[in-house]
């Protein structure tokens, strides 16, 4: 949202999914120019958005330098601090095995 970017350095926010279903798109990015689309499928409960909130002046490649908010990252994960909130069941108990899935689809 516009007010987030006006009042902070950018996004660094978890988005809790309404429905956990690996067969449904959890997050989607669309490039306005090329219309390249990234669909993310996951059975994690959270997609975390981070938008490169600080300018490092690091040269990425061939005279292209890092700038604030020039990139983003979508991380599928458990809710931050969920180890202290047992509603989200992020704690793996001894002897248990947990498997999560993430699929990235470019179209």
Summarize the structure in words.
- The chain is mostly beta strands.
- Helix content is 6%, strand content 35%.
- The protein is built from one helix and eight strands.
- The chain has a three-stranded antiparallel beta sheet, with no helix packed on it. A three-stranded antiparallel beta sheet has the order 2-3-8, with no helix packed on it. Strands 5-6 form a two-stranded antiparallel ribbon.
- It is globular, with a radius of gyration of 17 Å.
List the helices and strands and how they pair.
Layout: H1 2-7, E1 12-16, E2 25-30, E3 37-42, E4 46-50, E5 59-61, E6 64-65, E7 73-77, E8 102-106
| Computed CA radius of gyration, to the nearest angstrom | 17 Å
Strand order of the largest sheet: 1-4-7
User: How would you sum up the global shape?
Assistant: globular
Proportion of strand residues: 25-35%
Number of helices: 1
- Give a quick account of the main beta sheet: strands, pairing sense, barrel closure: 3 strands, antiparallel
Number of strands: 8
Instruction: Report the mean per-residue pLDDT as an integer.
Output: 85
Keywords:
107 residues; single chain; 8 strands; 3-stranded antiparallel sheet; 1 helix
Sum this structure up briefly.
With 107 residues, the chain is mainly beta.
